Amino acid sequence: MSQTDEYRFQVNLGGMIDILANHLYSSPRVFIREVLQNATDAITARKELGETAAESKSFEGKVTVELSGSGEQQVLMIQDNGIGLTEEDIHRFLSIIGQSSKKGTDLLASETSFIGRFGIGLLSCFMVSDEIVVLTRSVQEGVSMEWRGKPDGTYTIRRLETELPVGTQIYLRCKPGSEFYYEPAQVEESLFYYGALLPYPVMLSVDGGTKRVNLPSTSWMQDPEQLRSRRSEVLDLGYRLMGERFGDFIPLRTASGRTGGIAFILPRSINLNSKRLHRVYLKHMLVSDKAENVLPEWAFFIKSLIWTDELQPTASREYFYENEQLDGVRSELGTCIRQELLRMAEYEPDRLQHWIRLHELSMKALAVEDDEFLRIMHRWFSFESTFGRRELSELIREAGGRPLHYTSTVDEYRQITHVAAAQSMLVINGGYIYDTEILEKLHWIDPALQTERLSPEDVSMSFTGLTQEEREQYYSVLRVMDVALQPMRCRTELKRFEPASLPVLYTISQDALTLRSMENTVEETTALFSNVLDSLKAGVQQNAGYSTLYFNLNNPVVARILEATDTLMITAATEMMYVNALMMGHYPMNRSELGLMNRSVLHFINWGLGNGQNT
Amino acid sequence: MEDTIYDLMEQAQDLPGGAAKLAILEEAARLADASGLKELAYEVRGEIVDCAIFNGYPLKALIAFSWQLGQFDQKPDEYDEQELLWTYKWILGKVCSFPNIPKAQVENLVEDMRKRYAEYGYNERPYHYYKFRIAMDMGRLDEARQYLDTFRTIERDSMSDCEACEQSQIVRFYYLTGEDEQALAVAKPILSGRMTCAEVPHVTLSQVLLPLYRQGEADKAKDHHRNGYRLVRDDRDFLKTIAEHIEYLAVADPVKGIEVVERHLHMALDYESGLEQMYFYAAMVGLLQRLDTSGKSRLVRLPASLEWGKEERTLTEIIAYFRPLAESAAAAFDRRNGNTFYTNWIGEIVQTP
Question: Which of B45, B79, B113 is the last residue in one of the domains?
């Protein structure tokens, strides 16, 4: 009873081509890549045959591209002298979509040699042509064949009477609307773009003139060290291929020699977040100019040209699969760059310094990861300090054997910078990315390099305390001041410090700062969230402590406040100093602080208008 | 002043997420507050939430978000509700990490989110999904199992977490319950690369290591460790994931684990969320205990930011220093959560002498 009919999917080739053109390929010009790839595969196959069979080893591959006709009569012909296709090959590769020359067990199948998928690649030609004609003669069979395919999926095959040279010729007639892709300049540009590193001549002939399009010699690909002696040539190449004028480069090579490259050092500083777009050639053909993951992340000051025969591209051909192979290659290439920088440190410090100045962030990122690198490079890294922006070696000299002091946030640095500078105290701002990490690692690479994290409170330790007499003299005033600021969880201290022009110094710990912002937010948020913040406050409060307002007795105004006797006056002045310190430090004020300010301003106006009766 | 604030925001944009970026954004927020530029302050706080939540500063994120929400409720027409409601979920994903927030308040927050989503026409999938996640965070796995069953029956809408995120949380559930086979089965679409997002497979790879290892698939576990660790090692957001890698290395390759501990300890020391910190300390103690602790000093390089670590310390001392920190944190969580989940968990990964 049960009967199953078996059907086959009907694939609409026109629809598929549309999908290829609009979705898979980024631009119709990739048809050039596909035909170049087929040609390369065919040449490789013929070479390999030459090694096994008796064919002469002197075989030289060659691809010729010819443009003829004009307008809609334009024809583009690509000819290679590769292995050619037998009748059976034609049936297998050109007539069944999805069949790749990679499968099977014959010569065309050896994994290491080929990049293309003949059948599919050829389909891309339908994006620019309504008919594909393939003429071919296999080195093995000697029969000359013609294949004509149309985008509706029909094709014809016939044997030719004439005898073709061994190899394959593909004829593409310009499809209306595709004239752009047939312009000689465009074709030349595309051939160079995809095939610049092909190891055999790629010739373009237009109007009887013929010229070589790709690089005349790529012998250095075998041994990138050769590049060192061909500096200007390499930099020119960088300009032609990467569109940028570089000033320096580092040759790259893995131990196996299967991956090599040129790491061009970017002549300008670059944003840490910018994409790393490397140009990668797989088996001599361009795979991607957007490969991000071939170099380690810290190498963002490098734009590289990489060639490889061992990595596996993803389907979109813009990245490589993250596998152990890639991991290994990436770290080996990273080692080349690192070694070169270390070499520069030893022999060409000026050159290195130049690059560090431009790409310091990148170098610091590497140093954080790599102790050996840090050991060699740290002296050239620069840091912001109370002595200005200086190289670490200088800062170490200044510190004269004492520990290097640093703050771990920009905030803390800002709080103490005036005071520390006025006292000629060396403090490094470790608030920028990587800086604290580097400073904290220093003692691992050299035990003599001690660093000490400084908090604003620590700076006050160097202030001059009061004498016993002064202490007694100002005792009652200080109590008034303390009472005034107590509601703000701020205590006052009286010291002498430089600069004298600074009346007060407000210091607050990170935890107290967080607490402040929580309290200010409680005023601004919903009831539910203010409850949550209140719960969290408990935890923060433990560590937060009080902020401190240091009054500088060296400051004339402060000295006058301390001479005052009117409690209200002292209170108002203290409050004003506090509010002023907050404003100078860009600390937003909460409601009670704003109230404080209003009150004291009014007091002062009042006093001012009262003809100085309170002074 | 506005120009200065925009300058700061631009500066921040050029930096990768982290303390330096936050410091600049906070400066911008302070300036905006001080000059009464509310809308700009709101915008800056959006950036702070974004940066803080994904770089290990959940407290800063919570504070900034609270401020935004208060502002939004005063003038709902001035701001984009979609962005705010979306961010709300990030906050819920972190609230359990603070043991000081009582359970009732956490629950009130989820209900508040539910109400707000309903008000703007979104469905309850995120509500049940976050109940599921919070139950996991609190070690209430039976409850979590129930919410797992409910959230999946509700259709996805534009407020739902992405497919990959949801799937990764399901993996996490089976990882927590120790149902290895289930965990691996659910992880499949993630491991195959079919489901990905900004945090997946990052958080999942660390959770298949022990299940794979226990099933005798040591090589696969090793591969996933390598790939997974690479994805998270430079990102403070993933401290818990890194702790899971350490937990695995404690079993599979303790010596290599030391490197990982050394690399991240300074991060853990300076972490705003107690939960992640506890995970890290516990995993680290478990790992160090597996090494030869017989009197050797300085097998672990302690970061300079740790005052206590400036002298030579033996492994035994290091263990003795960090173990109580992890245990008291676990106790605090258990008190809040009303169970003994974390205490038990620590009991399993550290050895009792």
Answer: B79
pLDDT digits (tens, 9 = 90+) for B5-43: 999 999 898 888 888 889 889 989 988 988 889 999 999
Phi, psi (rounded to 5 degrees) for A145: -125, 155
Which SS3 state, helix, strand or coil, does residue A259 take? strand
Residue A337: C-alpha distances to residues A203, A340, A373, A448 (Å): 35, 5, 11, 29
Q: Assess whether the previous peptide bond of A499 is cis (omega < 30° from 0).
A: yes
Is residue A521 a known part of a binding site?
no
Q: Cβ B304–A439 below 8 Å, yes or no? A: yes
Query: What are the pLDDT digits (tens) for B320-347?
Result: 999 999 999 999 999 999 999 999 999 9
Residue-range domains of chain A with CATH:
13-212 (3.30.565.10), 219-353 (3.30.230.80), 381-460 (3.40.50.11260), 463-509+545-611 (1.20.120.790)
- pLDDT tens per residue across span B62-114: 999 999 999 999 999 999 999 999 999 999 999 999 999 999 999 999 999 99
Q: Which of B19, B70, B226 sits opposite A409 (nearest CB)?
A: B19
Residue A432 with chain B: CB contacts under 8 Å: 20
- With a CB-CB cutoff of 8 Å, which residues 520-579 of chain A face chain B? 520-522, 524-526, 528-533, 535-536, 538-540
Scan residues 11-30 of A and list those with Cβ closer than 8 Å to B. none
H/E element holding A73? none
Interface contacts (A, B; CB < 8 Å): 120
Q: Is A34 annotated as a binding residue?
A: yes
Mean pLDDT, to the nearest integer, of A448-469? 85
- Contact yes or no for B132/B169 (Cβ under 8 A): yes
Sheet holding A249-253, edge to edge: A249-253, A259-265, A302-308, A278-282, A285-291
Would you call the peptide bond into B201 cis, given omega within 30 degrees of 0 as the criterion? yes
Using pLDDT thresholds of 50, 70 and 90, give the confidence band for residue A111: very low
Any chain B CB within 8 A of the CB of A589? yes
